UniProtKB/TrEMBL annotation:
Cellular localization per UniProt: Cytoplasm
Residues annotated as catalytic: D213, C216 (nucleophile), H426
Protein's gene: OTULIN
GO MF annotation terms: cysteine-type deubiquitinase activity
Membership in a protein family: Belongs to the peptidase C65 family. Otulin subfamily.
Chief place of localization: cytoplasm
Annotated Basic residues bias: 1-10
GO terms classed as biological process: innate immune response; negative regulation of inflammatory response; protein linear deubiquitination; regulation of tumor necrosis factor-mediated signaling pathway
Protein name, UniProt field: Ubiquitin thioesterase otulin isoform A
GO cellular component, one term: cytoplasm
Organism: Alligator mississippiensis (American alligator)
Leader peptide range in chain numbering: none
Amino acid sequence: MFTFKSRGRRQAADTSPERAASEGSGQDRLEQKTSKPNGSSANVEERQKKVTTIFCLTKNEKEFYVPSDESCSASVATRQKQKRAVEIKEECTHKSHRRISQTDDMKAFLTHQAVCENCEVNLPGFSNSSAMESTVDNEEDMYRDAEEIEREKVLLVCERGSTENKLSVAPEMDIVEYCQKEWRGNTPVAKLMKKGYEAVSQKFACIRRVRGDNYCALRATLFQALSQATEQPNWLHSEDLMLLPEKLLSKYDWIKDWQHRGKLGRKMREIGDEIKEYLGLLRKKWKSVSEMKTPMEKQGACNELFKNEEEEYCLYEAVKFLMLNTAIELYNDNKEGKNVPVFSWLLFARDTSSNPKQLMNNHLNHIGHTGGLEQVEMFLLAYALRHTIKVYRLYKYSTDEFITHYPNDPEEDWPVVTLITEDDRHYNIPVGMCEETAV
């Protein structure tokens, strides 16, 4: 509010003769004009009185009036209260809309992360009307920053999710229900997937979803191999296995560039000791599960193992190192003119893996970090674990490649693990009707 006061001032008389002579006639006219009792023009005496002119500015209009001091003060106070009430209401409405927008954005963000990690995160829903009402009525919401409130809610959801969704392989779910949930449309792709799942359901009743963090191929294969293990493989029981890290590091110093999740910049001796520890853990867990009597016990042990992220990722590093050892053997055998499987030619025909060193640097080191297993590397995984990996490739339904075996011509005594994929990138586990032990 701005207040301007104007006061009439009588000009001081100039005593100079020249001034008096020049203004004489004007003064006479002014005296004659002011001597008139009433007229249509404004009264000069009234204009010469001291008056207070107050301009009251509001948000939507400007008013001009000349009230008394007391009435002006009361009016100003009333208008200040009204203005403050309007501002508070508008601010509350703005905050409520911003909270709704931020909640939707955060929910979309958390939902995307949940999909990547195969976990479900639910945020409480808000409607525009309920949010506005609760904001106006709730004094805390009125004076607290909306971002702070939403940040606290997100932290609570994340903390709850971190304790509830650690299982890397989800519980069993009916495979038909899973298909109906994931593929609801009638597009050509959806129809193809439905037919593929229907074909798989003739063999398996359920499916277990695997966390999709670029370890899914290793995770699904190792989970199946352990949960079906009846004995510890001879190659895993051999003492030569524990000497393997030291042996390879002594011949190939480039293995010092081996990268483990969260552990970079280590010395060669540290790398050798760590890999030896990982191989020992793999041997220990495999032996422990294989000695269990019933499938339920094996499944329970695997569930617990794949909740423990520290041990789980150590097992993956052990498997990756076994893949590197297998690749070195195949590469050397090919150079010496020995027979090697066809996939070995394809593996080293790539520009990014023309030798084992490039394979490690450009592919194996990235598994679980920025990429998963490519199809040719599924063959390498099968040879490293000496298991046949049977995969239902749903997008290849009604073709000869719908069921693919890695490798194509496996050894007869190799156990079989069965996986399911929709795109050759992410793998889940079919379970339920039978356990396959041979192709």
